[in-house]
Design brief:
Number of strands: 28
CATH superfamily of the largest domain: Interleukin-17 receptor A/B, fibronectin-III-like domain 2
Number of helices: 0
Order of helices and strands: EEEEEEEEEEEEEEEEEEEEEEEEEEEE
Radius of gyration: 23 Å
Largest sheet: 5 strands, antiparallel
Number of domains: 2
Helix content: under 10%
Structural class: mainly beta
Strand order of the largest sheet: 1-2-11-7-8
CATH class of the largest domain: Mainly Beta
Shape: elongated
Strand content: over 45%
CATH architecture of the largest domain: Sandwich
CATH topology of the largest domain: Immunoglobulin-like
């Protein structure tokens, strides 16, 4: 479990959970575009419930509020219909204080969600320094639709080589997005932080533009919240949402330890010997005394500690998203 400087409050989407002892609003469907609401409230034990908007079900949700009152909300939805797609469904989120005064609101209109498909949504709400008491979710199920001609199947997008890096106090999610279609695409990337029991504790999204047809694009997504203020989490899940079809790409989950803060660009580090024959990691001609990790040359990959080769180290090491076995300072 990773630690953060901010306090994370347990929360739950309570919907119609009578057993929780909270006053909630039950959803009713009057028309295809009737907006319906439910409430997320702070509770000691995370629970789950559903907000159903026609055939669109909210399966789980969670959020984190930073020190400036900005809310990072993640929502998982599913189209429960057996044969009918939905197009342009809407999700709204409104934050309130303890006196039920509105602090902030935001909404998103999604593209197409296929029958049985699960999608993820990230929303931010700026409460202008205030800490919300609860968040109310609402929604419209949009229109029934046949599969549009420009719908992009999930299988045509994949996310690979995802890793976390931490530098200068910022956590960055990096990886590659593969586009196997015949068209260039713009995509939305969603990052979800999860606990061991799959509770969402943080969510944020960004745009990735001009992913080439039959090609790949490297992405680098620095998160808005400083690394030491993020909530505790056990895994990171990365999702891709296509701009036109809202298809969810292959999920990538990373659970490795992020790289330590480092003043060096890794690809600029060089392994070399000093006048005494001792190997060091060099950066711009100087020994990189703040670097600890793995570095290689034509003879292999070695364990470097504080800029100097350490042949006494033996153990298992996580580095740049992978696990290595090191014996006598040499990667096996």
């Amino acid at each position: 479990m990773r630690k953060a400087g901010s306090v994370l409050l347990a929360l739950a989407l309570v919907g119609t959970l009578a057993a929780c002892g909270n006053d909630t609003q039950e959803s009713t469907t009057e028309s295809e575009t009737q907006e319906q609401t439910t409430t997320i409230e702070y509770m000691e034990t995370p629970s789950s419930a559903e907000l159903t908007v026609g055939t669109i079900d909210v399966l789980r949700t969670g959020y984190f509020t930073d020190a400036n009152g900005k809310v990072y909300l993640g929502v998982e939805v599913q189209n429960t219909a057996s044969s009918q797609a939905r197009e342009y469904y809407k999700l709204t989120a409104t934050a309130y204080d303890a006196n039920n005064n509105q602090l902030a609101a935001n909404a998103v209109i999604m593209g197409v969600i296929q029958p049985g498909e699960t999608q993820y949504i990230a929303l931010t709400l700026d409460c202008q320094g205030a800490q919300p008491d609860h968040i109310e979710l609402g929604g419209e199920e949009g229109h029934s639709s046949r599969t549009p001609t420009d719908y992009t199947p999930t299988s045509l997008f994949t996310i690979k080589d995802v890793k976390e890096t931490k530098k200068n106090g910022t956590l960055t999610i990096k990886g590659q997005l593969y586009n196997q279609t015949v068209y260039e695409h713009d995509e939305a990337l969603l990052v979800l932080f999860l606990t061991k029991d799959d509770q969402i504790v943080y969510a944020e999204s960004t745009r990735v533009e001009d992913v080439p047809a039959h090609g790949a694009l490297d992405f680098s997504f620095p998160l808005s919240v400083p690394a030491d203020q993020l909530p505790d989490y056990d895994a990171v899940q990365v999702q891709c949402i296509d701009r036109y079809a809202s298809s969810t790409a292959e999920t990538t989950v990373i659970t490795d330890t992020p790289e330590d803060d480092s003043p060096y660009e890794y690809d600029q580090l060089v392994l070399g010997k000093d006048e005494s024959g001792v190997y060091h990691a060099y950066y711009n001609g100087q020994i990189a005394t703040e670097f600890t990790g793995l570095l290689g040359n034509d003879h292999g990959v070695f364990y470097i500690e504080n800029g100097t080769l350490n042949l006494d180290y033996t153990g298992t090491l996580e580095f740049q998203g992978k696990t290595y076995t090191v014996i006598g300072g040499i990667v096996q």
